Amino acid sequence: MQLIIDQAQKELKNHGSYEFPVLISYERLSYFDTKEFPWHWHPEIELTLIIEGDIAYQVNDNIYHLRAGEGLFCNTNVLHSGHRHQSLDCSYLSVTFHPRLLYGYSSSVMQNKYMKHILKNPSLSSIYFTPEEPWQKEVLYLIKKIGTLDKERPISLELQIQITLLSVWQQIFEHIKIQESDFLENDRDTERIRRIMEYIQLHYAEKITLEHLADQIHLCKSESCRLFKRYMNVSMFDYLLDYRVERSLELLRHSPFDITWIAGQVGFANPGYYSKIFKRKMNCTPLEYRKKYKKGPKAPSES
């Protein structure tokens, strides 16, 4: 499984429908080809409850080590990713919903009084939920309840889900202190990171230098590197290499071309270096991956 994202890192999957914008799903990191879900964002809020195992979950520059029974609130339009902690798998419940399900219509009292200041606050990109904190324990119970409702499918399913999500929001509204400082700085830095990622997604097959990336955000090279590493917990160069590997997966599965051609198509001038980086990320060689996942006949050059 792979996330479908556009060049701006926006996830393209529908989270529910326009009539009822909620998606409830049980996931495992091992479901993803890379055993992790890559950086992406969406206009919906995401609530996560860890069922088994643990996960290194990153939202902007915040990194959480979430264990079974813990959870996370991921705000609308923020970058987030998740990967294994110490090579262990993780299963989790994901509840993704558009905030309009709760506020109804633009400029309503619900939106202006209870939601806007949280949704628009860059310092509230995420909230960590632990059962040790009473109000957060209640939130974790409510997330689990939504999963149970989705399994049992009562006649009033949508009504009960909406009521439960409103109860979650009430807990957040009543217990989270809003910090007005750092609004502009956080917003500006997040936008800079998105511009770098978008440039990489548009030009990954080309030769990309540090100067090219720094020019996108009008900062010097050293400051650009520090900013990206602080937010993404990985260097710009390593992010570029990982993204090139991810782009090669579909070619390995579905194209008839050899490894050298595929390496060149995703920006690796040296196929040996491509294989080295691929194995570091995927724990197998490109050829081993192709043999495992490719449908149909093998590529002629490898038969």
Report the structural category: alpha+beta
What is Rg?
A: 21 Å
CATH names the topology of the largest domain as: Jelly Rolls
Note the run of SSEs as H and E: EEEEEEEHHEHHHHHHHHH
CATH superfamily of the largest domain: Regulatory protein AraC
Helix proportion: 40-55%
- From the spread of the alpha carbons, the general shape counts as globular
Distance between the termini: 27 Å
Query: Taking all residues together, what is the mean pLDDT?
Result: 86
Number of beta strands:
8
Q: What portion of residues belong to β-strands?
A: 15-25%
Q: What is the number of helical segments per DSSP (H or I, 4+ residues)?
A: 11
CATH class of the largest domain: Mainly Beta
Number of structural domains: 2
At CATH level 2, the architecture of the largest domain is: Sandwich
Tell me about the biggest sheet?
A: 8 strands, antiparallel
**Oligomeric composition of the shown chains:** single chain
Low-pLDDT windows of residues: 296-303
